[in-house]
Design brief:
It is a single chain. By secondary structure, the protein is an alpha+beta fold. It has three domains: 87 residues, Rossmann fold (3-Layer(aba) Sandwich); 137 residues, D-amino Acid Aminotransferase, Chain A, domain 1 (2-Layer Sandwich), CATH 3.30.470.20; 60 residues, ATP-grasp fold, A domain (Dna Ligase, domain 1), CATH 3.30.1490.20. Helix content is 33%, strand content 23%. It has eleven helices and twelve strands. Strand 11 and strand 12 form a beta hairpin. 45% of the residues are buried.
Length: 315
């Protein structure tokens, strides 16, 4: 049924994001998986010529392997809504909310979830230590970026200006939050079904779960299922499902959390287009649930749709 409905699949990847290289790795893996299942899958660069490319190739559906930037913040989703081409992942609103840490955390807080205390400033705004209500160390990060790009751990006030400049390269708004000494645990959800959680233990040479920890083999150790008490595991599952609903997401998503020594589950962010590379966490969680990469990709494809169905032509 799926192959008949979605015969020609455009796999969108790359684009203008700092995560474009990772996106192309995800796209290549998705292409291979779809072709192995008999789909006519074609690679499409999500660049300035995207509109013309899609009009020329006329795909039945777009599989979004884009990460960050316009590929994940709702802009690309809006483009596909205009073209009337169904796409995988969340819609315009959910994508925009998921990409904005400030907006999503505000909703999470209102929904009863635990999020980090945060100071937000605009690009170029001066931030002095007296405006930060929590002690060192800090985490400084772009408000709208992923893969730990532009993120710096600050252990001394003298390092704060440089950390702000680094984050400013990737977002017009910058977040400063306390460094929380917790366990890196990430959970996955697929079409509203909770798949489970995995713990990441970064290499001791890394100051936190950095870009290198995520994409270089041997830079982190993954433990699935995450070794959590039944109470913490239950709270994490509930938090994941609630966050997914609060942002009005669909398809597959991954939630990044810290589990603190007292058992608190602190939600950092929800990733609406998680990585699908060989070192990515969602495929690893899916494998642990008995779902092959090809099955995962095909399930994601099956949820593709438009926020607003394309109008029926008037004869």
């Amino acid at each position: 049924m799926l192959k008949k409905t979605f015969r020609k699949v455009a796999v969108l990847m790359g684009g203008d994001s700092p995560e474009a290289a990772v996106s192309r790795m995800s796209g290549k893996a998705v292409l291979e998986a779809l072709r192995s299942r008999g789909y006519e899958a074609i690679p499409v660069e999500a660049g300035p010529d995207l509109f013309h490319t899609l009009l020329r190739t006329s795909p039945d559906v777009c599989f979004l392997a884009t990460h960050g930037g316009h590929g994940e913040n709702g802009a690309l989703q809006g483009c596909l809504e205009v073209l009337g081409i169904p796409y995988t992942g969340s819609g315009v609103l959910g994508s925009a909310l998921g990409m904005s840490k400030s907006a999503s955390r505000a909703l999470f807080r209102q929904g009863g979830l635990d999020v980090p205390e945060t100071v937000a400033i605009e690009s170029g705004e001066r931030l002095t230590p007296d405006k930060i209500p929590f002690p060192l160390p800090f985490m400084v990060k772009p408000e709208s970026a992923g893969s730990s790009i532009g993120v710096t751990r600050v252990d001394h006030f003298s390092d704060l200006p440089q950390a702000l400049l680094e984050a400013e390269k990737h977002s017009s708004r910058i977040l400063v939050e306390p460094f929380l000494p917790g366990r890196e645990v990430q959970s996955a959800i697929l079409d509203g079904r909770y798949l489970g959680a995995i713990e990441i233990v970064p290499d001791s040479s890394e100051p936190f779960y950095t870009y290198a920890s995520k994409y270089q083999k041997g830079k982190s150790r993954h433990i699935f299922p995450a070794p959590l008490t039944s109470d913490v595991a239950s709270r994490l599952e509930e938090a994941t499902l609630r966050a997914f609903g609060l942002l009005e997401l669909r398809g597959v998503a991954r939630m990044d959390t810290l589990v603190l020594p007292d058992g608190r589950v602190v939600v950092l962010e929800m990733n609406t287009l998680p990585g699908l590379t060989e070192t990515s966490l969602v495929p690893e969680i899916a494998r642990g649930c008995g779902l092959s990469f090809e099955d995962l990709v095909e399930t994601i494809l099956s949820s593709a749709r438009l926020d607003t169905p394309a109008p029926t032509p008037v004869c």
